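Hey, quick one: can you model this chain's 3D structure?
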Amino acid sequence: MNGKIIEVDISRLNENELSANKEDSMVFERLKKELQKWGMVELPVVVKDGERYRIIAGHHRVRAWKAIGHDTVKAVVIERNIDKEEEFNLVNNLNLIKGDTSKGEIIKKVRQHKLNPEKIDLFRYPTSQLFPRLSAEDIKTKDDEQKRLAKINELTLAIAKEIAKVMVDEKDELVSFLVVRDKACAVIRIPFKSGKVARERSSHIKELIKKAVKEAGAE
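Sure thing. Here's the predicted structure for all 219 residues.
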């Protein structure tokens, strides 16, 4: 890896939010012992982050180095500009070499930082394995679906409020309704005598609805 070697105050190093690596306390203790015995054999890799540096590789080594009493550390600095996806690939490929990164954590980081899945390239986890049906367009579709569901919830609340206005006694009935393709198509009013009775009647109505949907779909 091309880059110059510098000695930097550990206080000037930032953790990397793109890292899917999880720290193991037992491994960390062993790492401290190894560093005390051999020193920093493998230098951390960092990239400029304003007036500070962001760690690309060596998060645990830096922490362990500090824990055994060091205030500075030698590190390799990447001197060229890299975009988020390239940095993500670099950070996690270097972690994957040591076997520390999980598939679930990788997917979580990609979604959390809104990275483009089509540009993710990890040698242990090919894109097709990580995101078999996910693309930038898929993410937009998912966002649109969440907005649609939020609109349905808003519509549901509005209808419930309107129904409540004309009810003689709100405490004596449970009110539910069906929404099909964002439109209310039926209102169900269940006399409320007790929680148990209401639950039983609601369950019965759900079964009737399922049956009707099944029969309608079979025709």
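One thing worth noting: DSSP finds seven helices and seven strands in the chain.
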